């Protein structure tokens, strides 16, 4: 039997812990969770607050209860156990951890953090008697133009107000003040200090001022973790150099001084010439598939500098959850080496956005993939790609499952494979994943069974959906302008799935629109536009040249979240896109014109399609047009009981910080040397 801490939610200053139970063969009727403090051996028993399903339980705690007055103890390290009673014996299970959090302030002088020990067992750490003149930040970085700082703007759920960052000059005691006006995510602030403001030949220290519960507070900015992965050095025009240093007391120094001379730079660069020649030679050395297989069997050693490989949909895009995670990494830890694995068609996008990349199936790709310490992908790598034992492979996946997956597909009809081969390859690949991101308990249970997956699950929500939670109305207008969509028109988005039985050859799928565009234009064309988002496997481009005044095809647009944000209504059939779109609490229509065929002859469903969906089902094109008209007149679904029940089941755990939580997970692996 196993018990895993899989989620922690903050609510009104309290903490809600969720545990996943695996192979649980005993009753939970008399079960409870026991916390044991490692040093004092103090214990606290908490009842199971709620049983969410047969293997998901919830326990409510108040972190304030887990520390006590003690002259010789300021750090409290609680181990967590699940205790279950039966008629014959008592079962004691130590809880493992899949949840790793940043520290959260309980008050000015105490904080808590969930962590794990070297064996992966959950720890609930509380630190008291912290200096009240210290304020912990999340990251500090130097960009080409600014010194950027991010941190949390709440203390135990209470919002801090009127923050401003202060840079104090050690030599002159002069100060520069920068009000905090931007939020990185909900609950986090970010501030940028222009590098041109930093005085020459100076050493400065960072402070923060803010208001909390009516009191004005000033504290030093500190950072407890190392500066590894963050950008701590920048060279500016005029032979200037600025560096960041962490003091012994965790304070942050900002130093400005003259940069190295040209002679010194030339001398330092001389030793790198041979390495550059080798890189160029590798880029030019293209390999075929046989050569690829051979190279992956060759021995490799990891890079000295931590390197992360990102890939989305097998290199076809730079998008989805891996891209959301990448952007947070670039903001918080730009010093880490990050490389995208892409197909050649993505070279232009990467160059335009200054994204380091490597072309798939090249000599260099094999080398970079095999020497990197982390892989982050939303789809499967080829079976012949070897995963070294020093690689941590994080699988973000790419949707909440509606259709059957993996082992749950009884009859695989996709071209180029058989059911047995498909099952075997799926399980083999899943067993290579060290951590799998899950958006909800429903998905976690399916992933366990359909993938045969018993490794770590990060139940944090999909990082790609952070954008849906954190984007403001003015940002949506900017996206519309970028896409060329009129601001004064409503937007209907049609995003169907592909059909496994509609293919022309291996990897080539076909599709036709199941409604008439002339009818749509006649009904809605004056004040509504239609955007199409067809599945990437569909090969034939729809001819919409006669409808360019109101139909936009964004099938190849990399960021589907942008399309969600600009849409007032989503129409789909069996695609899992509606799970993500529901975050916006906007109407969703379902148009399953081949429902019985799809359900019975193709892949089947996990949900009850007729009862569990968050919107109405149209059975024909006439009914579809009628339901579109009704849905556009009712744009907010937050008062719809059925919709909100769906929302609470599938969307509620995502707090807009999912990308950050994956980043924290990776940084924990790096810091602990795992």
From TrEMBL:
Keywords associated with the record: Cell membrane, Membrane, Teichoic acid biosynthesis, Transferase
InterPro entries, per the entry: Glycerophosphate_synth, TagF_C, TagF_N, Teichoic_Acid_Biosynth
Natural source organism: Lentilactobacillus otakiensis DSM 19908 = JCM 15040
Membrane topology (UniProt): Peripheral membrane protein
Record localization: Cell membrane
GO terms classed as biological process: teichoic acid biosynthetic process
Pfam family of the protein (one): Glyphos_transf
Family statement: Belongs to the CDP-glycerol glycerophosphotransferase family.
TM spans (from-to): none
Gene Ontology molecular-function annotations: CDP-glycerol glycerophosphotransferase activity
Protein name: CDP-glycerol glycerophosphotransferase
Gene Ontology cellular-component terms listed: plasma membrane
Keyword Electron transport applies: no
């Amino acid at each position: 039997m196993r018990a895993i801490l899989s989620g922690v939610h903050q609510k009104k200053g309290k903490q809600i812990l969720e545990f996943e139970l695996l192979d649980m063969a005993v009753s939970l009727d008399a079960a409870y969770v026991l916390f044991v403090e490692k040093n004092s051996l103090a214990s606290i028993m908490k009842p199971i607050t709620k049983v969410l399903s047969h293997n998901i339980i919830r326990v409510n705690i108040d972190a304030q209860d887990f520390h006590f007055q003690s002259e010789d103890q300021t750090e409290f390290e609680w181990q967590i156990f699940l205790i279950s009673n039966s008629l014959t014996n008592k079962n004691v299970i130590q809880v493992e951890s899949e949840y790793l959090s940043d520290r959260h302030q309980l008050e000015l002088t105490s904080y808590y953090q969930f962590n794990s020990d070297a064996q992966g067992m959950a720890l609930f750490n509380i630190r008291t008697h912290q200096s009240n003149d210290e304020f912990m930040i999340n990251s500090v970085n130097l960009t080409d133009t600014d010194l950027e700082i991010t941190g949390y703007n709440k203390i135990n759920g209470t919002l801090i107000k009127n923050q401003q960052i202060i840079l104090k000059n050690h030599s002159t005691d002069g100060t520069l003040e920068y009000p905090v006006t931007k939020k990185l995510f909900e609950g986090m602030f970010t501030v940028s200090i222009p590098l041109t403001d930093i005085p020459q030949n100076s050493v400065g220290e960072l402070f923060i001022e803010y208001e909390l519960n009516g009191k004005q507070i000033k504290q030093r900015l500190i950072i407890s973790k190392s500066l590894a992965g963050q950008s701590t050095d920048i060279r500016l025009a005029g032979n200037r150099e600025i560096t960041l240093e962490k003091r012994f007391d965790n304070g942050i120094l900002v130093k400005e001084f003259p940069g190295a001379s040209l002679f010194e730079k030339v001398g330092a660069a001389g030793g790198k010439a041979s390495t550059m020649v080798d890189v160029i030679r590798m880029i030019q050395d293209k390999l075929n598939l046989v050569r690829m297989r051979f190279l992956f069997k060759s021995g490799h050693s990891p890079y000295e500098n931590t390197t992360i490989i990102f890939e989305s949909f097998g290199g076809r895009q730079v998008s989805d959850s891996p891209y959301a995670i990448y952007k947070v990494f670039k903001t918080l830890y730009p010093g880490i080496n990050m490389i995208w694995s892409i197909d050649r068609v993505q070279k232009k996008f990467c160059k335009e956005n200054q994204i380091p990349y490597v072309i798939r199936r090249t000599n260099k790709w094999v080398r970079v993939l095999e020497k990197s310490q982390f892989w982050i992908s939303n789809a499967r790598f080829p079976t012949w790609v070897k995963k070294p034992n020093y690689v941590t492979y994080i699988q973000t996946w790419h949707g909440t499952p509606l259709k059957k997956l993996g082992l749950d597909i009884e009859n695989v009809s996709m071209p180029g494979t058989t059911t047995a081969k498909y099952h075997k390859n799926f399980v083999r690949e899943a067993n290579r994943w060290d951590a799998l991101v899950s958006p909800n308990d429903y998905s976690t249970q399916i992933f366990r069974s359909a993938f045969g997956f018993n490794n770590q699950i990060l139940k944090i929500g999909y990082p790609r959906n952070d954008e849906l939670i954190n984007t403001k109305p003015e940002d949506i207008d900017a996206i519309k302008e970028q896409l060329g969509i009129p601001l004064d028109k409503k937007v209907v988005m049609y995003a169907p799935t592909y059909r496994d039985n509609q293919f022309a050859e291996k990897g080539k799928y076909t599709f036709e629109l199941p409604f008439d565009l002339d009818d749509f234009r006649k009904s809605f064309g004056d004040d509504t536009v239609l955007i199409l988002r067809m599945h990437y496997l569909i090969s034939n481009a729809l001819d919409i040249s006669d409808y360019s005044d109101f139909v936009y095809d964004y099938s190849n647009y990399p960021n589907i979240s942008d399309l969600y944000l600009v849409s007032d209504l989503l129409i789909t059939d069996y695609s899992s896109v509606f799970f993500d779109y529901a975050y916006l609490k906007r109407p969703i229509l379902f148009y399953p014109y081949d429902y019985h065929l799809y359900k019975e002859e193709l892949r089947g469903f996990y949900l009850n399609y007729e009862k569990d969906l968050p919107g109405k089902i149209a059975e024909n094109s006439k009914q579809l047009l009628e339901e579109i008209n009704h849905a556009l007149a009712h744009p907010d679904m937050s008062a719809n009981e059925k919709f909100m029940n769906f929302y609470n089941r599938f969307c509620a755990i995502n707090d807009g910080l999912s990308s950050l939580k994956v980043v924290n997970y990776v940084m924990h692996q790096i810091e602990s040397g795992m």
